[in-house]
């Protein structure tokens, strides 16, 4: 890269991400990003291996029968791995480039475990039925957000409940 183009690119990074205002630099941000990625990368392998027990595998087997299946020997589980990678990359890029916030987003291991072990294995729903319920709840959440009902619910909560919820989520994480 030419020196002028390189300088222009570096100036763009500093201005777009407000690095000087936040007392940081490109090297620090790259190291922080790599650290965050390494910290959450385990989810890329764990989530497909949890979901395989829900029956999301080429054999359609649920529970312990799926134990021997893996990313290496089952194309459906390999597809789950790919989908987890793509969802993580897209979510993180949207947070970085659009929202300009330093948050990495990835599918949640706890929710994958709840989906597999409670919804599919304990309650007996198929993984297709479980995903349909998740899709419908997502549509409802979008509707609640677009109609400002969500904001009204938040405004109705007393301040101490808001603080307790935040603290509880922090302790849970």
TrEMBL record:
Alphabetical list of InterPro entries matching this protein: Azg-like, NCS2
User: What's the superkingdom here?
Assistant: Bacteria
Q: How does the entry describe its membrane topology?
A: Multi-pass membrane protein
Q: Which GO terms describe its cellular component?
A: endomembrane system; plasma membrane
- Output the Gene Ontology terms for molecular function: purine nucleobase transmembrane transporter activity
Residue intervals passing through the bilayer: 30-51, 76-98, 105-125, 131-149
Q: Which UniProt keywords apply?
A: Membrane, Transmembrane, Transmembrane helix, Transport
Please verify whether the record's keywords include Transport: yes
Where it sits in the cell: the answer is: Endomembrane system
Residues of the signal peptide: none
**Any Pfam family:** Xan_ur_permease
Family recorded in the similarity comment: Belongs to the nucleobase:cation symporter-2 (NCS2) (TC 2.A.40) family. Azg-like subfamily.
Protein name per UniProt: Putative membrane protein
* Source organism phylogeny: Bacteria, Bacillati, Bacillota, Clostridia, Lachnospirales
